[in-house]
Design brief:
Distance between the termini: 50 Å
Shape: globular
Number of helices: 12
CATH topology: Rossmann fold
């Protein structure tokens, strides 16, 4: 049975960057890994592979949702020796919130035993609402890694995620646990550092704002594809390899994490950074 990990957070904080680099780090260690894009923009495919494949929902529609007729090779592209990538995509037939697409995907995963084919499955999740849309992931995914930048809005979404994970575990017996936070595009980290200190959320890696990283998406590659890297970028590769090793052992933060009240989020930044 594979280990499943969801990459979560506010839109535009670098979730796809984290999912792609964690996937490549898992593959670098020799573990067969599938990275799954859970949105309509095909971001994770563009980040990892030049191969073009139809989305899972598109392929299912062509076989009238007969799971046994679907050839996984048609929807799975190679991103490396041990890393594949798949896009769930939207569906013209499965209407409603994206949770229904996730439910359809998990039914296929069960029918075709995808969870036994890979050591790790990483879900790059676009949605930042942790309600009914999020429920299929909370029921099926074991671990979550949040991605956050320095903004109060990003911390607000992280705080809502932390609250959803705790409620899911305590009131509904769901298995999803938060392993920690990738702190991305850091420039003024004071608010993030205060949040971590007060909530006891575990920081996995801090990635400073860096112009070289912005060019990776259009190049359809990760830092793992480079022959050599300057020290400030090599540190990021090493950081994701350490996260991969940690996740392989499935440890989670055992210190009780407590979300803040919503209003407290806006008070974390120094006065000079406060919003009017």
């Amino acid at each position: 049975m594979s280990q499943s990990i969801a990459i979560l957070g506010k839109a535009s904080v670098g979730k796809t960057f984290a999912a792609a680099h964690l996937g490549m780090a898992m593959g670098y260690t020799g573990d067969k890994t599938l990275v799954v894009g859970c949105d309509q923009k095909r971001d994770v495919s563009r980040a990892l592979s030049h191969e073009v494949r139809p989305s899972l929902m598109e392929a299912l529609e062509t076989v009238n949702f007969n799971y046994d007729l679907l050839d996984l090779n048609e929807v799975t592209a190679s991103a490396g020796a041990d890393v594949d990538v798949m896009e769930l995509g939207p569906s013209q037939l499965v209407v409603g919130h994206y949770g229904e697409v996730l439910e359809e995907a998990f039914r296929l995963f069960d029918r075709q035993e995808i969870f036994s084919r890979y050591a790790h499955i990483i879900f790059d999740v676009n949605d930042e609402r942790f309600d009914a849309v999020f429920a299929p992931l909370m029921r099926r995914v074991q671990g979550a890694i949040a991605v956050c930048d320095d903004t109060p809005e990003s911390l607000f979404v992280l705080n809502r995620l932390l609250r959803a994970v705790l409620i899911g575990a305590s009131e509904f017996g769901l298995s999803l646990r938060l392993a920690g936070v990738v702190h991305n595009r850091s420039v003024s980290p004071a608010a993030f550092e205060r949040y971590v200190e007060r909530t006891r959320t575990f920081p996995l890696i801090t990635i400073n704002e860096c112009p070289e990283l912005a060019r990776l998406r259009t190049a359809q590659r990760t830092l793992f594809a480079a022959d050599s890297l300057p020290p400030h970028l090599d540190r990021i590769v090493v950081g994701f390899l350490k996260i991969a090793e940690m996740m392989r052992g499935q440890p989670f933060n055992l210190v009780p994490m407590m979300p803040l009240e919503d209003e407290e989020i806006w008070q974390l930044a120094p006065a000079a950074q406060s919003l009017n």
